[in-house]
Amino acid sequence: MNTKPPSNAENNAGAKDPLHGVTLAMIMTELEASLGWEELGRRIKIKCFTDNPSVASSLKFLRRTPWARQKVEALYIRHQRASRKV
Fold first, then answer.
1. Which position has the higher pLDDT, 9 or 48?
2. Region for residue 21 given its phi and psi (left: phi exceeds 0; alpha: psi -120 to 50; beta: otherwise)
3. In this predicted structure, what is the pLDDT of residue 51?
4. Please, is 49 exposed, middle or buried when counting C-beta atoms within 10 Å of its C-beta (0-12, 13-18, 19+)?
5. Helices 24-43 + 66-85 axis angle, to 10
6. What is the pLDDT of residue 12?
7. 3-class secondary structure per residue, 18-71
8. Which of 33, 41, 60, 64 could form a disulfide with 49 if both were Cys (CB 3.0 to 4.6 A apart)?
9. CB neighbours of residue 48 within 10 Å
10. Which residues contact 45 (CB under 8 A, 6 or more apart)?
11. What is the pLDDT of residues 11-63, one digit of tens each?
12. What residues contact 86, with CB distance under 8 A and at least 6 apart?
């Protein structure tokens, strides 16, 4: 079993990735709480945000649909950067 600590390169990569340690469930919960379903559906036009939305149904769809997940992750990163500026 390899239990060596991560190298500096591995630590730096995680530190530079804004999604490091953030789950999709955490992203969806935060976006829904701060923006709401209506705004999410306006910004990213996918049915799971506009028709009977829930975190559970959104997670199921986003885990199966890479292009939609990428859009949600990009929105989350922009939202995080904007909220840090305030």
1. 48
2. left
3. 95
4. buried
5. 90
6. 58
7. CCCCCCHHHHHHHHHHHHHHHHHHHHCCCHHHHCCCCHHHHHHHHHHCHHHHHH
8. 41
9. 23
10. none
11. 555 568 889 999 999 999 999 999 999 999 999 999 999 999 999 999 999 99
12. none
CA distance 10 to 28: 27
The single residue listed with the structure tokens 């209506």 is 38
Encoded amino acid at 53, one letter: P
Quick check: 61 and 46 in contact, CB under 8 A? yes
d(CA 75, CA 63): 16
Alpha carbon of residue 15 to chain centroid: 17
**How remote is the C-alpha of 44 from its chain's centroid?**
13
Q: Spell 10-34 as b/e; 16+ CB within 10 A means b.
A: eeeeeeeeeeeeeebeebbeebbee
Amino acid letter for position 55: V
